[in-house]
Amino acid sequence: MHTVKTPSNPNVQLNISKTVSVPAWEYFSLVSLLTLAWLYFVLDFHFLADLLCGLRGDPIRLFYNSKSKIPAQVLQQCRVLKERYAVTPWLSSPHLQTLFLHVNGRPPPVKYDRQLYSTADGGTIGLDWVISPHAVDGVGITSAPQSSASDETPMVVIIPGLTSDSDDAYVKHIAYSSVMKGWRTLVANHRGLGGVSITSDRFYNAGWTEDLRTIIHYVHEKYPRAPLFTIGTSIGANILVKYLGEEGVATPVGAAAAVCSPWDLVVCDRFMSRKTIQKIYNMVLATGLRQYANMHQSVMTRIADWDLLTKSKTVRDFDQHCTRHTGKYETVDTYYRHCSSAYYLANVAVPLLCFNSLDDPVCTKEAIPWDECIANPNVVLAVTKHGGHLGFFEGITAHSVWWVRALTEYMTVMLPSPLMHKQSEISVSNLNTAQGSDLDKGPYLRMSDSGEVAAEDLQPASFANTESRNKFTIKIPEELRAVNGLTRQDSAKKLSNTTIEKGPAQKDSGRRQLESNDRLLKGLIGVGAQNRRMMWLLVYVAVVTSCPLIGSALFFRARGRIAALTKRLLK
């Protein structure tokens, strides 16, 4: 303690305690603790919640139609889908899961045999056939396959995600797991990826299904008896589901799986611009797209504005300056809406298993089409609480990917199952379900030259030549073909002059036919009269709104008739 005399009053003494200095390590510890707490919430860590639950993981939620046969015949035998998914403890964040997948990912040893496939428009696609680890001298059943009409070895086709190819870790995980089951496995790279140059002015995008359609047709022609299973990941899943919806029953695909599909590109685009962490993902994806463009600069400069393309900071910027031009879409949102696979899900006719994580930092849970998945009996949606985007690592050492393990078991049960889809001869290619609506699917009347009135279910134009329409016809006699313009008395008089055979049985049938025809005729004339009254009412409304003074004068002059007309319309 120190004693200090003040200048104004020397007799007053102040006691000043010596300040105790705080060590620097305590400041550092406090700052570190606050930083860790901030990162815990920003990076969506869930380690403490998992620890409180004993690191047992969370159950898998399955969504499907109550009339679906898949749960009873397939899912009951899938042990992995009925268990819990426990995240790797040191990867208990969706961002760490996603980051680890692309930085390391622990990919298994996979070798490919490259085949260059030329498309009809002059493009080139790199097809990577997975070489079996049990092959001798690098030649196995999955390497450089020859056509075989009698080969029934199951065939698995994998479609990678955005800017991904056969070298990505998650692709190698599912490719290795498939080939180890003895299945012939093929990775179909997108145009311009996998080290293949672009040889035409066409590029792939989120809704470009022509390349997938071509590859599946090519594989099916080579092995017509082989059951075909197709797997799409991320953007590849969106392309796959859109293709299945376009093809309907005409696809040779027996079953399929969509892993972390974005579903609705408009919703995902808004989500990627919402938070700071999502904006970082957006910039990373845009960097990958710019690198893709740099590899094919000679072609890109002919189609898109190269200066604007290289300045793209987000995926939307790249789609604005490049994708919408190459895909011939008017706007970016038009491209997103047209290519969103959720609108095609209702027409999927093959067993489809979908994987999504609720904490996916790229493909938000807001875009998951819950109702559409449940409405289609061919679709099963498996949702986990955690997993990130394509990560789903499990085990202390993150040696395994959960969705790969679950999907492999599902394929093992599904491939020999009678639920595998068989290709139909009905061709429904290029069905654009995105333009349809439930409002235009009601019955309508159509009168043919032969006097038939047909009530039909409206179907898309591509169904025009099929036998799938629900139709019933009413045969109208010759007397009713010119019903338009007849009064009810005129038509009754004309029907009374109709010659009818005088046989006992024909009298009753003729009388019933005339009564039925008269009811139909009255209904048609009534509809016509109703339409005429509605037309005059609309004319009056138009006059009132355009010329108020004239409309008011007409109202006072004919208000009695207008009131009576309104009452009739409301009846």
UniProtKB/TrEMBL annotation:
SUPFAM superfamilies: alpha/beta-Hydrolases. Residues 504-513 have a biased composition (Basic and acidic residues). The keyword Cytoplasm does not apply. Signal peptide: none annotated. The keyword Transmembrane applies. The chain crosses the membrane at residues 24-43, 534-558. Keywords: Membrane, Transmembrane, Transmembrane helix. It comes from the Eukaryota. Residues 493-513 are annotated as: Disordered. Gene3D superfamilies: alpha/beta hydrolase. Pfam families: Hydrolase_4. Residues 155-367 form the Serine aminopeptidase S33 domain. PANTHER family: ABHYDROLASE DOMAIN-CONTAINING PROTEIN, ALPHA_BETA HYDROLASE 1, ISOFORM A. Belongs to the AB hydrolase superfamily. AB hydrolase 4 family. This is Serine aminopeptidase S33 domain-containing protein.
